[in-house]
Amino acid sequence: MPLRVLLLSPSEVCYNPRLLKAGDYFTGRGAEVTVFNPVFGIADLALYESFKASRAWRFKEYNISKRDSQAWAQWAWASLRHLAAQRLWKRGWAFGWSFPHALNKGLIGLDTSGERYDVIVSNLVDTLPLAAELKRAHGAVLVYDSQEFFTGQARSAWAMAWVREAERRCIGEADVVIGTTDVMAGRLDEVHGLSSPALRVRNAPSEAPPANAVSETEGDSKGRRERRPLRLVWHGFQINYRGRGVDVILDALRRCESDAELYLQGRVSDEQRALIQEVAAEAGVGARVYFKPPAHPEEIVASIRAYDVGVSAEQGADENQLLTSSNKVFEYMHAGLAVLAPDLPGLAETLDEYDVGLLYPPSDPGGLARCIDMLAHDRARCEAFQSNARAAAAEVTWQRDYSAVFDRIVSGCTTGHEQVVDGYDT
Asked: How far is CA 209 from its chain centroid?
């Protein structure tokens, strides 16, 4: 019988890339994949439906998008129960149905009656208590993908208390715990005293880029590359002036001696677009800052190949930002771009290992400006970083990292689990 896997998604799975890639991995090993997928309306409906059609997965949905009367009714019911769950938790009610639903109202719609799963995959602490319940109910292997260092994030006091309690109770029930970097995996081991060390699965694209996939800048002659401005790209799900370092990048651009251009790719509200344009104009760089629409979640790498350098600007505001490494750094590498990133442990481990770019002091626009100018004036060095990025992309893939997770599942993980070989029970 094929291995039966449940991905416990906190929202539309097309915007949960680590779950998406895990599902593809299991499918490639012959497993039957089911996604529990609350529908909040985050994803464009056409994009979401096309994504579903592209996967041979079963989708169990709970629609609270308010797009129709049924979705409105389900949203109202979920909101009432969610509010009750939060109030009970804040009053010290730390057990029963309310605890697993205190952070995510969409989980209230999960119904697994009559179902049976061999593996449960959770990618957020928000879903961990519910995943632990399902593990016990189904006798399943639990994979907890700690895609952030959740106990090191900035949250409200009550939410932070809930997070700590959720991991205290439930992380020990996980048969496999995953972190996004080596430093995060080590910290998870230290904080939670894990019986089996956490594994590193990086936020890399699923597979290596095709052999014929080249950066669009490779088609430029050497003279043309040296004459035109250095093209920088920052991409993310949502463009905001503050929070992910766009303010730092704009300040750095103002300080640059070179005429580098900045392309911001992602969703942006009218308010944030106007704010960024105003700041850029006042800094005298408005003509060198451009907005680009978001790419399809599975076409990000292809969408950024036209640039020279990918910029990350996390500021190390909390322990999570110190330890993790975002998708964008690996997407820059797979697109064949040089990388500029703050000197934070989770980011530095990749840049140091593969020599794909430069590190600058976190939240230091002057340091970032010097790095930009260095690459703008020394195109040979920039191209060396780009070449290293293309070489690293063949090695740094989700498929390669996740094989260690699958091997641990295969090994049985804990006494009482059946062994699994190539997606089939034996």
From this structure: 19
Beta strands in 77-169 (DSSP E): 119-122, 141-145
d(CA 140, CA 307): 45
Name which of 27, 415, 402 is nearest 200 in CA terms.
402
pLDDT per residue over 132-175, tens digit each? 999 999 999 999 999 999 999 988 999 999 999 999 999 999 99
How much is the mean pLDDT over the chain? Answer: 91
Burial class (CB in 10 A: 0-12, 13-18, 19+), 19: buried
Given this model, what pLDDT does residue 412 score?
A: 60
For residue 293, with 0-12 CB atoms within 10 Å meaning exposed, 13-18 middle and 19 or more buried, which class applies? exposed
pLDDT of residue 97: 80
What pLDDT is recorded for position 421? Answer: 42
How many residues are there in the chain?
A: 426
149-179 in b/e form (b: 16+ CB < 10 A) is bbbbbeeeeebeebbeebbeebbebbbbbbb
Predicted TM-score (pTM) of the model is 0.88
- Non-local CB neighbours of 357 within 8 Å, separated by 6+ positions: 309, 338, 339, 340, 341, 351, 385, 389
Contacts of 358 (CB under 8 A, 6+ apart): 338, 339, 340, 341, 351, 371, 374, 375, 385
Strands 420-421 and 424-425: antiparallel
The DSSP annotation for 274-302 comes to HHHHHHHHHTT-GGGEEEEPPPPTT-HHH
Which residues of the chain, if any, have pLDDT below 70?
212-226, 412-426
Q: Rounded to whole angstroms, how far apart are CA atoms 377 and 379? A: 6
pLDDT computed for residue 418 by the predictor: 47
User: Residue 266: helix, strand or coil by DSSP?
Assistant: strand
Q: Which positions ≥6 away from 353 have C-beta within 8 Å?
A: none
- Asked if 387 and 394 touch (Cβ cutoff 8 Å), the reply is no
